[in-house]
Amino acid sequence: MTLVLLQLIGLFAGLSMLAFGGGAGVIPDMQRAAVEQHHWLTASAFLDMFAISRAAPGPGSLIVLLIGLKAAGIAGAAVSFAAMFAPSCLAVHVVARYWHRAARSTWRAVVERALAPVAVGLTFASGLSLMRGTEHGWLPWGVTILSAAVFSLTEINPILLLVLGGGTLLLVGR
User: Where are the alpha helices (DSSP H) in the chain?
Assistant: First the structure.
């Protein structure tokens, strides 16, 4: 059990410092570690936990509690939570002191411009990773891609897209 707790600390403390733009950017690494490397969960269980963490109130990165709970019980959940949130909170506290002092500096604008595509790229990779784990066949891939395109290009309510996509897949027996 101690080994699992140390593995949870190592995983989530490292991911904490990579979560630029939010926790969604580290989902692929989290999935790879929890499912393929440590075998704490199955791919299906990970996707279920991801859905639960997104549906529950609070930050989506609370999935770490569910992973920790599955891997090592209540102690695993507590360790995972602390490892995911403490390092980044401490780093933000320290960096914010200097960041506000450099409000008009050139280097701050360069750093902001440089980190924006990193955050977008990590979030995009997260979506691709989750899509690869769930989509099997051309129809589900097509529904996912079409839904993403319609959502990006129109003002349609995402709930309607979910209903239409899910209904389409149910009608054809997927």
Answer: 2-16, 27-31, 43-55, 63-101, 106-134, 138-153, 158-171
Same domain, 10 and 34: yes
In the chain, how many domains are there? 2
Q: Is the pTM of this model over 0.85?
A: no
User: Are residue 29 and residue 93 in the same domain, yes or no?
Assistant: yes
Identity at 6, one-letter amino acid code: L
Residue 156 lies in a domain: yes
Q: From first to last of its 174 residues, what are the pLDDT tens digits of the chain? A: 899 999 999 999 999 988 766 777 788 899 999 999 999 999 889 988 998 988 888 887 889 999 999 999 999 999 999 999 999 999 989 988 888 888 888 988 898 889 888 877 877 777 777 777 665 788 888 888 898 889 889 998 888 988 998 898 889 876
Count of CB atoms within 10 A of residue 89's CB? 11
Domain range for 149 is 135-174
